[in-house]
Specification:
Largest sheet: 6 strands, mixed
Structural class: alpha+beta
Shape: globular
CATH architecture of the largest domain: Alpha-Beta Complex
CATH superfamily of the largest domain: 2-enoyl-CoA Hydratase, Chain A, domain 1
Length: about 425
C-alpha cells in the first residue's frame, strides 16, 4: 500500500506542471465542428431565455473593457430578457440579442449571423445626412428593372417609414462610436434573411415614387472585388484594398504597390473604404513598401498579461516615397484603423473621406446554445505609435468629404475627385 501511494504521489508530482499549465490556459473559441450548428426554425420561450442568459453571462464574465464603457449591463438584462422571452419569431429574437449586445457600444461585441444567412437586394444604401439614399443599383437586377436608380431617397421599407426602419437598425448595430452606429444602421436597413423579399418605395425629390419588391439574394459586402488597380488620367495610380485578412488578396496588392514604387508615378491613391480589417501582421507587411526604413506603426498589447509588442515594418529594398492620398470611411476598422492612423501619425499620407471606425480590438468567437454564436472583444488590443488605444480614437481625416444623393445620381465619387485634385495641385 505504501509503495502504491508513493508511486501515485510521484506521478502526481510529475504531472503537476502540465495540470497547472492547462488550468491556467485562457479559454479558446469552440472548434470548427461546433460552429456549424444549425439554428432551429422555432424556439420555445424557455429556450430563448436560456440563450439570452448564457449570452448575458458570457459578456458579464469575460468582457475586459467595462472601465471604458458607461453601460449598466444589469439594466440591459432587465430590459431585454422579457423581450427575448416574448419574441414572436427566431428573427425577432435575433434582433433582441443584437440590440442587447449593441448596448455595450463595442464593434466586436456582436451576434454573428451564420455565413450565407443574410443578404440584401441588388441596391446599396448609404446615409445622406438624415436621409437614406440609393448609392448604386446592380445593372440588370430586379431593382434596376423595377425603375430604382442611384440617388433616389428611400420613403418606406416593408411599410415602415425609412426613418423608423433606420432607427430600428441603428439600435441593433454593434459599433465602437455613436456616429458609426448610426451610419451602420442606415447601411443595414435593407438586409434580411438571404432569399427573402423586401418592398421598397423610393423617389427623386419632387418626382413620383417607385415601388419595388426585391429579393435579398445579393452579397452583403459593398464590393465583390477586394482588390482593384487602375491608372487615372495624368498617370496617378489608384489601388483599392478592402481587406487585410485575405492572403490571396494582399499578395497581388503588394505586388501592385511594388510596381508603383518601380514606376514612380506622380501620385498614389489608396482606397480603404469598406476595408473591415484583418490582422496587424498583414498591415506591417503591406506597409513596408510605403516606408524605406524600418518603422513602428503601432503596438499590440495583451491586456491580460500586459505584454506589448511593437508592430514594425522591415526595411524595404524598394519603396514608394511619392505623394500618397488615402480614402477612408466609417467602414474602415480594426487593422484598417491601424493602417490609416499610422500613415497619418508618420505624416506619410493625406486622409480624405470620413472618419474611420475606431476599433482597435480583435473579436473572438463565443458559442451560445442552439447554434447561436457571438463575437466578444479579445484581450489583444492595438495601440498607436504613441502607445494610446486605437479603440474609440481613430484617425481624423484631413479633408472630410461625404458623398450625397446628388453625387450618386450623377455617378460621381467626390472623395476620389478630391484626392485627384490634391495630387494635381501645384
Amino acid at each position: 500500500m505504501k509503495v502504491w501511494l508513493a508511486a501515485a504521489g510521484l506521478l502526481l508530482f510529475l504531472a503537476l506542471p502540465f495540470i497547472l499549465a492547462v488550468a491556467d490556459r485562457p479559454s479558446q473559441p469552440a472548434p470548427p465542428a461546433e460552429v456549424t450548428a444549425t439554428i432551429p426554425d422555432v424556439l420555445s420561450a424557455e429556450q430563448r431565455e436560456a440563450i439570452f442568459l448564457d449570452m448575458w453571462s458570457q459578456v458579464d464574465r469575460n468582457y475586459l473593457y467595462w472601465g471604458r464603457r458607461t453601460v449598466d449591463w444589469s439594466a440591459v438584462k432587465e430590459k431585454y430578457l422579457p423581450l427575448a422571452r416574448n419574441a414572436e419569431s427566431v428573427g425577432a429574437f435575433r434582433t433582441v440579442l443584437k440590440q442587447a449586445l449593441a448596448e455595450v457600444e463595442d464593434g466586436h461585441v456582436a451576434l454573428i449571423d451564420p455565413e450565407g444567412s443574410v443578404g440584401r437586394p441588388h441596391v446599396w444604401v448609404e446615409p445622406d445626412g438624415d436621409q437614406l439614399a440609393i448609392a448604386w443599383v446592380d445593372a440588370g437586377s430586379d431593382a434596376a428593372k423595377a425603375g430604382l436608380k442611384a440617388g433616389m431617397l428611400l420613403q418606406t421599407i416593408d411599410g415602415l417609414g425609412a426613418a423608423e426602419a433606420w432607427a430600428r437598425e441603428e439600435a441593433a448595430a454593434s459599433a465602437t462610436m455613436a456616429p458609426t452606429r448610426k451610419w451602420l444602421g442606415g447601411r443595414n436597413v435593407l438586409r434580411g434573411p438571404f432569399g427573402s423579399s423586401t418592398m421598397v418605395v423610393a423617389s427623386f425629390p419632387g418626382q413620383a415614387p417607385v415601388t419595388a419588391t426585391l429579393v435579398r439574394d445579393a452579397q452583403v459586402d459593398a464590393y465583390s472585388s477586394l482588390f482593384e488597380k487602375k491608372v487615372l488620367p495624368g498617370g496617378i495610380v489608384y489601388i483599392a484594398l478592402r481587406s487585410f485578412g485575405h492572403p490571396e488578396v494582399l499578395q497581388p496588392a503588394k505586388t501592385a504597390l511594388l510596381d508603383v514604387a518601380r514606376r514612380e508615378p506622380p501620385g498614389l491613391i489608396m482606397d480603404v473604404r469598406y476595408n473591415r480589417g484583418g490582422n496587424s501582421e498583414s498591415v506591417t507587411d503591406f506597409s513596408q513598401v510605403l516606408f524605406p526604413k524600418s518603422t513602428i506603426l503601432g503596438f499590440r498589447q495583451d491586456n491580460r498579461t500586459g505584454q506589448k509588442v511593437a508592430l514594425t515594418t522591415t526595411a524595404a529594398t524598394l519603396a514608394y516615397e511619392g505623394p500618397l492620398v488615402v480614402l477612408t470611411n466609417q467602414s474602415c476598422g480594426s487593422a484598417c484603423d491601424l493602417f490609416v492612423l499610422s500613415l497619418q501619425q508618420k505624416e506619410r499620407a493625406v486622409l480624405v473621406g470620413e472618419t474611420p471606425c475606431g476599433a482597435g480590438i480583435r473579436g473572438e468567437l463565443h458559442i451560445l446554445p442552439n447554434g447561436f454564436q457571438m463575437s466578444l472583444s479579445s484581450p489583444s488590443e492595438m495601440l498607436d505609435r504613441q502607445g494610446q488605444p486605437i479603440e474609440q480614437n481613430p484617425a481624423q481625416v484631413d479633408y472630410r468629404v461625404a458623398p450625397t444623393a446628388a453625387d450618386w445620381a450623377a455617378g460621381r465619387d467626390p472623395v476620389l475627385e478630391k484626392a485627384v485634385e490634391l495630387l494635381q495641385a501645384p
